[in-house]
């Protein structure tokens, strides 16, 4: 009986050692590299923007929002945001592009504030991310 237990323990020990000798790190590095390439090539898939607006005392429209980076490896910079101003009926009054100088690291959210001239008749705004550059 003790020989049987000893034989089972030896088999388990050898199985564990052979599993450790496999190089999962090579496969991991390949997956990590392909994920990084995907994140670098498609920043708009990983960046989300949300914004709201209000007026200030000097007759400007203030757009405040957040940019969230859902990537796991790549940081992004030179974030270009398109702000679309709409009236009560949803018709487009004006579109403006703004570039944020912030660097958004993976898995983080960054706040932004844009002050612009008042667009007469604005009832709502939509903020969309139009481009970004992978940081290093």
What is the strand and helix layout of this fold?
Blueprint: H1 2-21, H2 24-41, E1 47-55, E2 60-69, E3 75-86, E4 92-100, E5 109-117, E6 124-135
Antiparallel strand pairs: 1-2, 2-5, 3-4, 3-6
Question: Helical proportion?
Answer: 25-40%
The coarse overall form would be: elongated
**Would you tell me the overall average pLDDT?**
86
Q: Under the CATH scheme, which architecture of the largest domain would be assigned?
A: Sandwich
Total helical segments = 2
The top-level CATH class of the largest domain is Mainly Beta
Identify the CATH homologous superfamily of the largest domain: Lipoprotein YajI-like
Read across the widest sheet, the strand sequence of neighbours is 1-2-5
CATH fold title of the largest domain: Immunoglobulin-like
Q: What is Rg? A: 26 Å
- Total number of domains: 2
User: Structural class from helices and strands?
Assistant: alpha+beta
Strand content is 35-45%
- Sequence of secondary-structure elements: HHEEEEEE
Describe the structure.
With 136 residues, the chain is of the alpha+beta class. The chain folds into two domains: 37 residues; 94 residues, Sandwich (Immunoglobulin-like), CATH 2.60.40. Strands 1-2-5 form a three-stranded antiparallel beta sheet, with no helix packed on it. Strands 4-3-6 form a three-stranded antiparallel beta sheet. The chain is elongated and about 90 Å long. The model has no long low-confidence stretch (mean pLDDT 86).
List the defining traits of the structure above.
alpha+beta; Immunoglobulin-like; 2 domains; three-stranded antiparallel β-sheet; 6 strands
């Amino acid at each position: 009986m003790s020989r049987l237990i000893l034989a089972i323990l030896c088999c388990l020990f050898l199985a564990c050692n052979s599993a450790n000798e496999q190089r999962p790190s090579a496969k991991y590095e390949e997956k990590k590299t392909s994920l990084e390439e995907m994140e670098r090539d498609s920043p708009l898939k990983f960046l989300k923007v949300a914004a709201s607006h209000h007026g200030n005392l000097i007759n400007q429209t203030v757009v405040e929002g957040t940019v969230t980076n859902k990537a796991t490896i790549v940081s992004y910079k030179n974030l270009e945001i398109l702000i679309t101003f709409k009236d009560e009926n949803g018709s487009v009054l004006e579109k403006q592009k703004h570039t944020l100088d912030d660097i958004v690291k993976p898995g983080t959210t960054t706040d932004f504030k844009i002050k612009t001239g008042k667009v007469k008749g604005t009832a709502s705004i939509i903020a969309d991310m139009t481009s970004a550059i992978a940081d290093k």
